[in-house]
Design a protein that fits this description.
Shape: globular
Helix content: 10-25%
Radius of gyration: 21 Å
Distance between the termini: 75 Å
Order of helices and strands: EEEHEHEEHEEEEEEEEEEEEEEEE
Strand content: 35-45%
Number of strands: 22
Structural class: mainly beta
C-alpha cells in the first residue's frame, strides 16, 4: 500500500498560498500584457506540461549544482539537447532567437525542454529578470546550487494556451524602445530587483565558436552604473566597468562550443546613453578570427516628445588559411520614430 505524500502549505513572495512537499522560493514572472506573448507561450507550455505540480501555471525545478566552467559546459550540453544550439538547432528568423523552458541552468532543461523562436529582446528580459532574482535568493541564503525553486506565471491562464491565442491586452510602458539588436527596458519591468533601467545589446547571434570573446566599449553620452556580459539565462559571465561620458573599458569571457549567445547588460539611471563597442573572437581550436563593430546609441527627447532613429550595422568576418583570406561585410539600414530613439551608426 502506497503511503500518501504529506503536503505542506506554503506562501510565495506575493503572499499567495500553494501546496508542495517542501516550501521552496518562488520565481514569479508577472505577465506584461500584450507584448510578451511569445515567450510566455513557451513558458506556459513548460509549466502546463510539468508533472512537478498540479497547477498549469507553475513548475518546480532544480538549479544545477555546478558553478563556473562546469556550469557553462552543463548549460551548453542542455542547449544542444534541447535544440537551441549545435548542428541540429532550430533556425530562427532575424531579430529572434531560441528560447528554452525549463532553463538550461536547471536539471529539467535539455531534451525535455520546450523551445520556440521568440523576439530577442524578450529573451534578454527573461534572462535578466531571472538572474536578478537568482542572485538575490542565493545572496540571501534562501536558495543554494542544487536546490529547488518554483517558477510561477501570473496574470495569464496557461491551461488555455493550446486552445486559442493568448489574450490581447493593453500595452504597458515597460519597453522604452527596441530597435535592431538594442533594447532599453524600464526599471518597472524588474519589480523589486532593480531601480535602474536596463540597456541590452545582443553581441552575438547563433554563435557556436569556442574561444575568447573580447568586448571593447566606450561611453560617449550618459553613464553605466554597473553591468555585465550575460548569457541567454542572464548569468553574469564577466562584469563590465561602471563608466561615465568619455570612459572606455574592456571585458572578456571564454566560451565553450555551442554555449549560446552573449549580451551586453548595462544598468543606468539615464535616459540618454550612447555606447560604442566592438566584439572580437579568438577561437580556441582554429586560426579563424571574427569581429563585429557597431555603435549603439539610446536617446530620449523629453522636450518634443518625438524623435527619429535609424539602424545600421557593419560586420566583418575573416578566415586566414594557406589559400588566402575571406572577408564578408554588409550594412543594413532602417527607420523608426517614437519618444525614444535608438541610433545604430554604420562604421566603415
Amino acid at each position: 500500500m502506497a503511503l500518501a505524500v504529506r503536503m505542506k502549505c506554503c506562501v510565495d513572495e506575493d503572499g499567495d498560498y500553494f501546496c508542495a512537499e517542501e516550501c521552496v522560493p518562488s520565481l514569479i514572472f508577472p505577465y506584461a500584457k500584450d507584448f510578451l506573448d511569445e515567450i510566455y507561450e513557451n513558458m506556459c507550455k513548460g509549466t502546463a506540461g510539468s508533472s512537478s505540480t498540479t497547477d498549469p501555471n507553475s513548475a518546480i525545478v532544480t538549479l544545477k549544482k555546478d558553478t563556473g566552467p562546469a556550469l557553462r559546459r552543463a548549460k551548453a550540453s542542455n542547449r544542444r539537447a534541447a535544440g537551441c544550439a549545435g548542428p541540429n538547432r532550430i533556425t530562427c528568423p532575424p531579430g529572434t532567437n531560441c528560447d528554452e523552458f525549463p532553463f538550461a541552468s536547471t536539471d529539467e532543461g535539455g531534451s525535455g525542454a520546450n523551445i520556440m523562436c521568440v523576439p530577442s529582446w524578450q529573451n534578454d528580459w527573461q534572462g535578466t529578470y531571472y538572474n536578478s532574482w537568482l542572485s538575490e535568493q542565493i545572496g540571501l541564503g534562501k536558495l543554494a546550487r542544487g536546490g529547488q525553486y518554483r517558477i510561477v506565471l501570473k496574470n495569464i491562464d496557461c491551461s488555455k494556451y493550446m486552445r486559442r491565442r493568448l489574450d490581447r491586452r493593453a500595452e504597458p510602458n515597460g519597453v522604452l524602445q527596441q530597435s535592431g539588436n538594442t533594447t532599453l527596458l524600464a526599471a518597472s519591468l524588474f519589480g523589486n530587483h532593480s531601480l535602474q533601467n536596463a540597456l541590452l545589446i545582443d553581441l552575438t547571434q547563433d554563435q557556436d565558436t569556442p574561444g575568447t570573446y573580447t568586448l571593447d566599449y566606450d561611453i560617449s553620452q550618459g553613464s553605466i552604473i554597473s553591468g555585465a556580459i550575460v548569457d541567454d539565462d542572464g548569468e553574469y559571465l564577466a562584469n563590465v566597468s561602471a563608466l561615465s561620458t568619455g570612459g572606455k573599458a574592456t571585458a572578456s569571457v571564454d566560451l565553450e562550443e555551442d554555449y549560446g549567445d552573449i549580451h551586453f547588460l548595462g544598468w543606468t539611471n539615464d535616459k540618454d546613453v550612447s555606447v560604442s563597442y566592438e566584439v572580437k573572437v579568438t577561437p580556441g581550436t582554429s586560426s579563424t578570427t571574427t569581429s563585429a563593430a557597431q555603435t549603439a546609441s539610446v536617446t530620449r527627447s523629453s522636450d518634443t516628445g518625438t524623435a527619429t532613429s535609424s539602424a545600421s550595422s557593419t560586420a566583418t568576418a575573416s578566415a586566414a588559411s594557406a589559400a588566402g583570406a575571406l572577408t564578408i561585410s554588409g550594412c543594413v539600414n532602417g527607420g523608426l520614430s517614437g519618444i525614444l530613439a535608438v541610433l545604430i551608426a554604420c562604421l566603415i
